[in-house]
């Protein structure tokens, strides 16, 4: 059977697995979504406030701090995976937690990847606001919380984009979660690690089915961002 025939046969079987709600496919998809959503939420919970504080305050070393955050936005996931592995290993400082090769370790690794993405894009969003808006709020001597609420509201599309970008980075990540999760069937096997494994073992139907799901999720989050941006522009 040639390459094209294998691909077409894999596509046919993949749709069969998806439509039949194959338990293995559902389990892998559910775990991947759970880990990515939790990691994105935690990353956003810390990234948005810190990004706002950095962008809205002038202090010595701000440019250096922004450069560091931007650098971490592009850090190779395998480096993050290595760091988390060493921290959580039996001889590491957090080895007593015994969470290596668990979904919790995967969440920790993905949080370290999503945090700088959310923080960096939040900084860019706040800094990109009209300077006149900031000057007007300051001239009115508005309470700090009210001023922050206005600035966050005006940059909400950028903040949504930051969270969606972080989620996209999390759910498509493979290196870090492979290292700290172990790709254990029924426990830590996510979409990306499963696709890699099933491709290497020749189980193309499963690999293609999971690839279709991953592409669908990625398309969905990008469609959501596009719709929100269009709605926001129409209101302005």
Structural notes for this entry:
- With 236 residues, this protein is an all-alpha fold.
- The chain has a single domain (25-235), classed as MetI-like fold, CATH 1.10.3720.10.
- Helix content is 78%, strand content 0%.
- The chain is built from 11 helices and no strands.
- The chain has helices spanning 3-19, 23-56, 62-73, 77-88, 103-127, 131-139, 144-154, 156-171, 175-181, 191-200, 204-235.
- Helix 1 crosses helix 11, helix 2 packs parallel to helix 5 (103-127) and helix 2 (23-56) packs across helix 8.
- It is globular and about 65 Å long.
- The chain starts with a helix and ends with a helix.
Features:
MetI-like_sf, mainly alpha, single chain, globular, 78% helix, MetI-like fold, transmembrane, 11 helices, transport, 236 residues
Quick gist of this model?
The chain is mainly α and 236 residues long. It is built from eleven helices and no strands.
Per DSSP, the total helix count is: 11
Q: What is the mean predicted local confidence, pLDDT?
A: 89
- SSE order, one letter for each helix or strand: HHHHHHHHHHH
What does the largest sheet look like?
none
What is the helix content? over 70%
CATH class: Mainly Alpha
- Find the count of extended strands (DSSP E, 2+ residues): 0
What spatial form do the alpha-carbon principal axes imply?
A: globular
Flag low-confidence runs: none
Helix/strand class: mainly alpha
Distance between the termini: 57 Å
Proportion of beta-strand residues = under 5%
Looking at this structure, what is the CATH superfamily?
MetI-like
Number of domains: 1
CATH architecture: Orthogonal Bundle
Pfam families: BPD_transp_1
GO cellular component, one term: plasma membrane
Protein name: ABC-type tungstate transport system, permease protein
Domain ABC transmembrane type-1: 29-225
């Amino acid at each position: 059977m040639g390459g094209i025939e294998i691909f077409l046969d894999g596509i046919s079987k993949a749709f069969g697995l998806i439509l039949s709600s194959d338990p293995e496919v559902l389990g892998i998809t559910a775990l991947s979504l759970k880990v990515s959503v939790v990691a994105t939420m935690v990353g956003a919970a810390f990234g948005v406030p810190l990004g706002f504080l950095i962008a809205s305050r002038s202090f010595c070393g701000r440019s250096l701090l922004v450069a560091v955050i931007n650098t971490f936005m592009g850090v190779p996931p395998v480096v993050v995976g290595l760091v988390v592995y060493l921290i959580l290993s039996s001889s590491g400082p957090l080895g007593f937690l015994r969470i290596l090769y668990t979904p919790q370790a995967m969440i920790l690794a993905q949080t370290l990847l999503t945090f700088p993405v959310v923080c960096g894009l939040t900084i860019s969003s706040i800094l990109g606001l009209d300077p006149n808006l900031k000057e007007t709020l300051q001239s009115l001597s508005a309470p700090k919380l009210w001023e922050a609420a206005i600035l966050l509201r005006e940059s909400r599309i950028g903040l949504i984009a930051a969270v969606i970008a972080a989620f996209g980075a999390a759910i498509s990540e493979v290196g870090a979660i492979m290292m700290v999760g172990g790709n254990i069937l029924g426990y830590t096997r996510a979409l990306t690690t499963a696709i890699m494994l099933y491709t290497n073992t020749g189980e193309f139907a499963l690999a293609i089915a999971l690839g279709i799901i991953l592409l669908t999720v990625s398309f969905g989050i990008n469609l959501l961002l596009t719709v929100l941006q269009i709605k926001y522009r129409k209101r302005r």
